Amino acid sequence: MGRYPMVLFGILFMAYLIWNHMSDPDRPISVNKTAVDRGRELYAQHCGRCHTGGLSPIQAMPGSPGAGPNLDYESRSIYRLSDAELLATPKSGTHTDDESGKRAEMTKQVEGLANHQIRDILAFLKSTWPSDGRLEQWVSSHTAQK
């Protein structure tokens, strides 16, 4: 076998590994600088209108139909969600029973986002959590998998 087919095979194999890694919905959400930076931008564009507070440069209109909870440090209930639950929340619009109008608005905001973009938003959110919040969420994620 010549050199060209081996190089081509190597490139295709690497592309497959990258694609497989990017498309795996069960892998943990990685909090790295690149993902956090992309997530910060996406959060401002898609989430900040309704989820205000210390995380968003955008101020939502009080009483707007889709106004969601503040997702900063004070929102401790978010730490109890596993990575799988965090990933499902934007697409379903909720992780608890709340008004259907809020669910509909939230799902519209993420409609055009790919899974890796939602993961970036969640990486940004996780980067704002204190260490005890990250630990609590890590435990939730790992006990939910068993």
Descriptive notes:
The N and C termini lie far apart (46 Å). The protein is mainly alpha-helical. Helix 2 packs across helix 5 (115-127). The chain is 57% helix and 0% strand. It contains six helices and no strands. It has one domain. The model is unreliable at 57-61 (pLDDT under 50).
Q: How does the major sheet shape up?
A: none
Strand fraction equals under 5%
Q: N-to-C terminal Cα separation, in Å?
A: 46 Å
Low-confidence segments, given as residue ranges, are 57-61
**Dominant shape:** globular
Q: How many strands?
A: 0
User: How many domains, in number, for the residues?
Assistant: 1
Could you report the average pLDDT, rounded to the nearest whole number? Answer: 74
Helix content: 55-70%
The helix-and-strand class reads mainly alpha
* SSE topology string: HHHHHH
Number of helices: 6
Cα Rg: 18 Å
Structure, briefly:
By secondary structure, the protein is an all-alpha fold. 57% of the residues lie in helices and 0% in strands.
